[in-house]
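Now produce a polypeptide, keeping tokens residue-aligned:
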Amino acid sequence: MTEIKAKKKQEVKLVSVPSPYIVPERNAGEPLVLEATHLGIDFGGLTAVDDFNLGMSKNEITGLIGPNGAGKTTVFNLLTKVYQQTRGTIFLGGKDTIGMSTTQMNRAGIARTFQNIRLFDSLSVEDNVKIGLHNSIDYGMWQGVFRTPAYRKQEKQAHEKAMELLSIFDMQDEANVPAGSLPYGAQRRLEIVRALATEPKVLLLDEPAAGMNPSETSELMDTISKIRDDFGIAILLIEHDMNLVMGICEGIVVLNFGRIIAKGTPSEIQNNPVVVEAYLGKNKENKEEKNPGKKGGKNR
């Protein structure tokens, strides 16, 4: 496990809302924008995620961490309906999402990025963002074919919105560049911009700092905080960079073998022995107590 060095920030106080959720104290009493209750999924005889409970309020950044194979991306796939849950319920904006498809979930207000970048490489940076604006475009095929006034008006609005979003990441000067020619870190940022274009209530970021150097990661931390503040949305992120997680997340959920083993503030998680054990295994002393025959170098 990477040594945890939290970026200096004022840690928020977490308070309990209807159990088993915790949210920043400033949001106590406000409705949850995302609520997953007793969520689980089985693949054949294998339980991948079990009894997962999460509640998120607006303007909140929460980290979902755990060892490789803990089930983090599976949780994202459940929340976005890539997988349909075997049990449990997901509420988005207070509405039950049972039976919704991935597209319907996106329109309802949840967007995500992926571990593996999924851009349209041959299209321009701006066109990739415009694809994310599909929820706000309602002209028909014939309007597009004949370039009607309604089409031209909406295309102008889409261009302005795309450029506004790109400017958040200082990418406006690359609007006409093919997305596939961007450096890896810039492609990561573009994927976040495209997700924002769908106007989500909840943004899921799957390892957003993957492939970034320390300077880019620091800029990403500032950008994620800015997104939370300026757009007023909840952000749930999976990340292995503990400096990033501890530096920007207000609450952290730790997953291991598909089940939540800890929830709390960064400092609480950092000092939780159950979390340390999940990442590092039992310490040497405990191993020796369990295997006394290995002491002294001779097996019994």
The CA atoms of residues 158 and 212 lie 29 Å apart. The first helix runs from residue 72 to 79.
